[in-house]
Amino acid sequence: MRTPWHQFAFGIALFACTAGCHRDMRDQPRYEAQEASDFFANGQADRPLIAGTVARGQLDAQDEVHTGKVSGKFSKQIPIPVNRELLERGHERFNIYCSPCHARTGAGDGIIVQRGFRKPPTLHQERLRQAPAGHYFDVMTHGFGAMPRYGAQLTARDRWAIVAYIRALQLSQHATLDDLPADNRDQLTKEQP
Amino acid sequence: MAQIFHPSMNIVARVTIFGAIFFAAGISLAGWAFVNSPYVTQVNVVREQAVPFSHQHHVRELGLDCRYCHYNVEKSSSAGLPTTEICMGCHSQVWKDAEVLRPVRESFAKGEPLLWTRVHDLPDFVYFSHKIHVAKGVGCESCHGRVDEMPLMRRAASLHMDWCVDCHRHPELAVRPQADLFQFGRNKSLLGGVSTEPLMRAAFTAEGQSAPGTRSIPSATHRKSSDTLKSGSELVAEYGIVTRQLTDCVVCHR
Question: pLDDT for B77-131, tens place per residue?
């Protein structure tokens, strides 16, 4: 480093080195979700979970809330507190995941059924009205007949929320005037022609 | 010694010097046009896919919610492409013998993934999260455009940084009520999706900007299901969006 000439040569050498470290920062050597991979045999970067893996906070205990069963039998009631918030969540999730076939009314003539999917029974028939809450939870978790399972899309809480909403739908089709609060009853009777 | 240049060369020299300004401007303009051209940004360029999936059919004609297939969009940074199992949920019975769906059936039978070509791909140094955008009121349409009008998937926006930053500076122009997030074509007056520029210009320059600090936001109102109108700024406050932090580098880059 005695002369400017040496410094210049050193600079050139340094610059030449950086050429060897080129790395495209737009496409870094790491995998993104669902990316393809040359490394793994099935071409997927996403790895299947090793049996027994539990993510932190996602331990699905084999209790009533996560199985819909008590000692082998379907839960009669929804095992989590049912309030307005849960019902609204159920309303939203039902319309996203169930209404394509079951229709927003639960009558079972949704758009996918109109396009040829096997028609599910109406949720308003007596057998299903009497079915325990755990039955619906189980059908959503594991599927039933032609219906696929929805366990991946819906958390246990969401599934119970939908059960609660199905109960509300069923009530809506079998409610009588006496079920209404007094002021609503008056309103309804007045509005009738 | 004889003169090398004829006196008329003076004119040529002057024209050249004068023309150089236009030449330089032209080069810059051409560069700008190139960078923003569909060739580079891939806007409106349809990619070839293994299956010619139509969002128009599934979203508009059948009325499926985005979340039926992209069910991770509210809980993960990646919205997620649906598993083959989800496709087969309906297509085990509907269009079950269609030739176009053969790759789907094969994928399902063999347990091998379908290979899709990505349409939206941000550089790896951008840490984008669908979850936070959806939670804070940015609808699908704001970035993905009128997906319900796309028979084949294409990009609606450049995904350039200036496009991101437009919105991060003025989130009040993009946020929607939660009920409208997964709807298309409802908020016509908003940054419908595609180009933020005309609105930005209208809102923040010339006629729109009456006085500094009192910028009016024209037509940035939102229809709620209850028919009450809410301005974008009200929604920004409601969502708890801290606008002054939104343009910090670390929000997207780490």
Answer: 999 999 999 999 999 999 999 999 999 999 999 988 899 999 999 999 999 999 9
The SS3 call for residue A49 is coil
Pairing between strand B229-231 and B221-223? antiparallel
List residues bridging with A69 in a β-sheet.
Answer: A74
> For residue B115, which residues of chain A lie inside 8 Å, CB to CB?
36, 43
* Partner-chain residue, chosen from A28, A33, A117, that has the shortest CB–CB distance to B78: A33
What amino acid occupies position A43? Answer: G
Task: Provide the residue type at B224 as one letter.
Answer: K
pLDDT in tens, B127-166: 999 999 999 999 999 999 999 999 999 999 999 999 999 9
Angstrom distance (rounded) from CA B201 to CA B188:
17
- In this prediction the ipTM stands at 0.82
Pick the residue from chain B with its C-alpha nearest to A95: B65
In this structure, the number of other CB atoms found within 10 A of the CB of residue B2 comes to: 3
**Residue ranges of the domains in chain A?**
64-176
Residue B102 CA to residue A9 CA, distance in Å, equals 62
The range of the structural domain enclosing residue B233 comes to 122-252
3-state SS assignment for residue B223: strand
Q: Establish if B56 belongs to a structural domain.
A: no
Residues in a beta bridge with B175: B138
Does the residue B230 lie in any domain?
Answer: yes
Q: What is the CATH number of domain A64-176?
A: 1.10.760.10
Q: Inspect the interface and report whether the beta carbons of A25 and B112 lie closer than 8 Å.
A: no
Cβ-Cβ contacts under 8 Å, B90 against chain A? 100, 112, 117
Given the structure tokens 């040829």, which residue do they identify? A116
pLDDT band at B201 (very low <50, low <70, confident <90, very high): very low
- Which positions in chain A touch B94 (Cβ < 8 Å)? 112, 115-117
Total structural domains in chain B?
Answer: 1
Query: Could you give the CA distance from residue B6 to residue B160 in angstroms, rounded to a whole number?
Result: 51
The amino acid present at A177, given as its one-letter code, is: L
Greatest CA separation for chain A? 106
* Minimal C-alpha gap between A190 and chain B (Å): 24
Cβ distance of B68 and A100 shorter than 8 Å: yes
DSSP H or E stretch at residue B231? strand B229-231
Cβ(B165)–Cβ(B247) below 8 Å: yes
